Amino acid sequence: MTAAKRVGLASLAVILLGTCAAYYAAVLIITNPDVPDARLGYAIPGLLAGLTVMILMAFRRRVHQTAGSIAAQLHLMAENDEIEPIAVDEGDELAEVSARLNQFLKQAHEQRERLRSENRDLQIQARVAAAEKHHTEAIIFSISDAVIVTNRFDELLLANEAAESLLGFKLATSVRKNIDRILSDSTLVRLIREMRSHGANASKKVVEHCIEHRGSPRTFTITLSCVLGGEEASGVVAVLHDVTREKEIARMKTDFVSNVSHELKTPLASIKAYIEMLIDGEAEDEATQSEFYEIISTETDRLHRLIENILNISRIESGVVKVVREPIGLPGVVKQILDVAAPQARLKDIRLEGQIPPVYSQVEADHDMIYQAVMNLVSNAIKYTPPGGSITVSVEVDEQQNVTRCRICDTGAGIAAEELPHIFDKFYRVRANNKMAKGTGLGLCLVKHIVETVHDGKLSVQSEEGRGSTFTIELPILQ
Fold it and tell me: What is the pLDDT of residues 336-347, one digit of tens each?
């Protein structure tokens, strides 16, 4: 039995006893007026006790009802999540308790509203911070350069895919880990720590550093900036920009200028020397003068070809070359070239033959450019093939791959395997063949640009030192 039930039963028993006592005393007084005073003295206290119990029980009932009303109102407030004043009659015994409770509820309401307002502000701040974080992450992830962000404890906070690929880690398993456990490059770790230690006094720092990536060294400019939080640095942002290509282009430009200067200087020096000899009268007879004139003319032609090749390559690379595309037959171009090159081949006792099939196909190309490309390859074959050798120029159609191929095969000096990857570079000449013939090292570069850049074709080479070379031009067939 619960305590509430026990109290209820006890109260009921008291009410019954008090009622019985009051009833008994009243009956005794009314029905026995002649009862002695002593007995009446016993009956009056009983009556008073009964009346007192009844009054107390009536007061208890009223308090109980008021307390029940208060509890019901509190329960309704809890269900509706609203705080309202408790309604109690002014003369009620619990009015003062109700007033104090209302005062407490008012303070609780004000406190709750203040907490709600603060909670709304915190939610707004959290949403703004989350939006800013997502915005920052979207920016960092969209950057092609490698980006890493650390905190004041040199722990990794954020990095993009470029940084993961370059530095060899996974962001998902590296967040909040110290960078010396993640980055294998000690120089980068040192730079980040130094930048963070300088704090508010540090300005943006740019350092050039070489990092090994996929087996080859790459040059990067590392830009380091502090993320300031008050007087101290709350983190460091490091951006790694790959400048390997820029460095290579700068070196190529320097080499290009140097090579052009050298190539221009050689024929100009010859021309100048022979002109000075003519002026000084060293060519006394007509035969000597004719020889000097011939040398000057040859060197002038060489200078002209060099300048023309440089200009043509420059025009093609910059996309301003004028291309006249028209349907042409590659066998017809090859026949023209064989006719022009035959006398030069006979002078060196070289057998020059063509293998041109009867199948007729056309390519959409600039006739003069294709003629120049094939002629350049045939001329090179004649220059680097010793007397008694042979050169074969063939044309074939590959309908399966939808291309027309032109092959120039010779039995000349050939090219060493280590030099094959460089033969299409500007001004590159095979060292072993320098003594066999003069050249500028621009011919093959120009051929490659004509075939691949201008005509979307393909130029390839197969060669073995001492056993000749085969250059192949592939052009798409006109549909």
Answer: 889 888 888 998
